[in-house]
Amino acid sequence: MNDPVNDRLITHLRHVDLAVPDYDAQLRFYTETWGLSAETTDDGIAFLAAEGSPEQYSVRLRKDDAKRLDLISFGAADAADVDALAQRLGTEGVQLVSEPDKLQTPGGGYGFRFFDNDGRTIEVSSDVAVRQHRKVEEGESIPVKLSHVVINSPHPEATVAFYDRHLSFALSDTLTSPHVGDVMWFMRTNRYHHSLAIARCPHVSLHHASFEMRGIDEYMRGTGRLLRAGVEKVWGPGRHMAGNNTFSYFLDPHGNTIEYTTELEELDEDTWHPHLYDFSDPEVTDQWGTANPMSEFVAKKSFNDPDRGVFVAPPV
């Protein structure tokens, strides 16, 4: 593994961009039900912000004939780091989708895009204007920020190696079992336990996107609000062992799994050693014992539909 800090040019997770056929239903869900704010909307595209986040937006929705993950966006400290990373990736044979340039999305900035080994579009940017955000109040059951994104891969070991080698993500923990072997790798790009996780799956797809809530009370209020609204719950509420974070997984109108979470573990990167957790132990998947058991239903929902955007850059 690389030096987890000194080689690292990526600072944090910015946003996740989704394309869907039923754009209007998706937009209503993410704003009226999930609790994001429509900062900027245009014909068939919307930029949705989390109230507590300085990021211009945490989710971008785009109308398209096919459901797909458009891209995952990460931040860099400055334009020099963006240029250095683009040069590094190009030299190492990674396929760039665009060269570093001014961004035309809300908040501007400077960035570029590339394909990872599975064909997902990844964006890295710097100098994006800080959004006027606010402190989420006690009892407010809306997302503070985008916490992490989990992706599915049919070749997860190669995908883990890609993010380690090319982007200096560090491994925090791995889920395994005696029966099926390793199934999920949690990777970090700062002190938080994971900004990205990679799961074993028959195909490339989005596993889930997770949103941080203010605290346990707000997380439970949000979970209950979605249940009362009739949103399909996949798994939770509970508390994972890897990352020590709470979880409640739901399905958006297009079948993407999305999560409310809180209290994701912050690590001392100098002293942390990755664990190998046996997820056949119920306490590993849910320390509290309050969630429905991990089952084939939960796993199948998290597999999602095969991504239609593999090695096809989004049009915007």
TrEMBL record:
Which terms does the record give in the GO molecular function aspect?
dioxygenase activity
Q: Give the record's keywords alphabetically.
A: Dioxygenase, Oxidoreductase
Q: Which Gene3D superfamilies match?
A: 2,3-Dihydroxybiphenyl 1,2-Dioxygenase, domain 1 (3.10.180.10)
The protein here is known as Catechol-2,3-dioxygenase
According to the entry, every stretch annotated as the VOC domain falls at 12-127, 145-263
Key word Flavoprotein present: no
SUPFAM superfamilies according to UniProt: Glyoxalase/Bleomycin resistance protein/Dihydroxybiphenyl dioxygenase
